[in-house]
Amino acid sequence: MAEHSSGGHILNGCEKVCYRGRIAPSPTGFLHAGHARTFWIAQERARANSGVLVFRNEDLDPARSRPEFVEAMIEDLHWFGVEWQEGPDVGGPFAPYTQSQRIAFYREAFDRLRAANVVYPCQCTRKEVLSALQAPQAGDDEPIYPGTCRPGSGKETSLTTVSGRITWRFQVADGQEVAFEDGCCGPQAFVAGKDFGDFVVWRHDNLPSYQLAVVVDDAAMRMTEVVRGEDLLRSTARQLLLYRALQWTPPKFYHCPLVKDSSGMRLAKRHDALSLRTLREDGESAATLRRRLFA
Ligand code: GLU
Known about the structure:
Strand content: 5-15%
Structural class: alpha/beta
Distance between the termini: 43 Å
Radius of gyration: 20 Å
Number of helices: 8
Helix content: 25-40%
Mean pLDDT: 90
Bound molecules: glutamic acid
Low-confidence stretches: 1-10
Strand order of the largest sheet: 3-4-7
Number of strands: 9
């Protein structure tokens, strides 16, 4: 993929810098009120900037993604009042908008990372990584890698003798600070080796990781701003390292506060009570839900 700058392209009638935002749900369950709130904000920001909103179907997890949830996401978001100008259902200049159909793009970026020598193969299982940890990391899905297979550790994975399945990790520089200005949360700073470790870019099941796929797609689809939940702030720090390594200009970021339930827990797809489906079936109107979410 060619390098690009995120400004100045002429698309969909935008003559100057065209704002391009996206919503990127995963079809692993019904969307809930928290998704609706974040996606509404994404739509508002695209509208306020006379921009384009893209819908991307992030269906890279084969074990959890289901086609019926793709249909449900589209239907429920339309019900809620979110409209997009590009997406799997409407097409657009950067199709396909479904991640499982974009593996060649991810492969190309991964090959560039390999050529740049910033990734290394790892044979550790998730269980081994977890058991090597001093303390669990709160609020993050990827545990800090203890460095077992890091180049120079003496236990590196040699590709000639490797047996079993390999994960590829991006090697971070311990102690390096990754700072950025978030449009909603203000100045952010995370430290490599402390807030996150060597993170997976290519999974043992021969698929790209979320971090790699999202960077490749946001760059390829010419996003100028990424609006998403604040649970992904730490992921943004990792993604900025990938932008740097791939020599791509990152978009701006705007991380929204998460919606919590009455006991203060953040909503998750497994908690059905506040799914858009259930709210709809219970007779809630989209307008009432919007009022409640933005009260
Ligand atoms: N697909 C991710 C999710 O549903 C969000 C990705 C993103 O916005 O960067 O959690």
